[in-house]
Amino acid sequence: MIDQLMNLVRNNAGDTVINNPAIPNDKNDEVVRDVSNNISEGLKEETDRGNMQSIMDLFNSSDESSMMKNPAVGGIMSKVTASLSSKFGVSPQIAQQIASTLLPKVMSQFVNKTKDPNDRDFDLQDIAKNLGAGDLLGKLSGEGGLGGLGKMFGR
To answer: What pLDDT is recorded for position 13?
Structure first.
């Protein structure tokens, strides 16, 4: 999952990271990797805390603006902002601007690719395993295992 996330971040990093004078060019790949890791870790932390409703709501979001109201995405945004500031010396304002520009695009594409039965890069079962959420996702879907959740996403 992390490699696929990294590709999404890289594909959307253009002006936000790559052409951003606040980030030295020799740090671009490191920033992309860090943002990707923070997304993955943030989703895992939400799962570990049992905040499955936020995760479920994320996958039911229809657009970038509704997604940004999701508490899980808010937590990830905070992680990304703090990491950019502390690891890369970016001012908190610029870090917030980067996160609020990049995350809606990446998270929206992540969700849409996960929902797309023809896109095998983001498999729902693999994501659930990576998040350690297989059993809990099955319970929330109302059926045993991931089958019910897959039906919820049209799979």
So the answer is: 95
Long-range residue pairs from 69-75, CB within 8 A, at least 24 positions apart, any chain: 71/46, 72/42, 72/43, 72/46, 73/103, 73/107, 75/42, 75/45, 75/46
Say which residues have a Cβ less than 8 Å from residue 22's Cβ, sequence separation at least 6.
90, 91, 94, 98
Place of tokens 């799979």: 155
Banded pLDDT at 68 (limits 50, 70, 90): confident
Rounded to whole angstroms, how far apart are CA atoms 154 and 118? 11
In the predicted model, is pLDDT for residue 146 greater than 70?
no
Beta carbons within 8 Å of 151's beta carbon, 6+ residues apart: 141, 143
Tokens representing residue 33 in the block:
């990797």
Indicate the residue type of 127. Answer: I
Model pTM score: 0.81
Phi-psi region of 16 (alpha: psi -120 to 50; beta: other; left: phi over 0): alpha
Is pLDDT of 155 > 60? no
Taking the C-alpha atoms of residue 71 and residue 67, their distance in angstroms, rounded to an integer, is 9
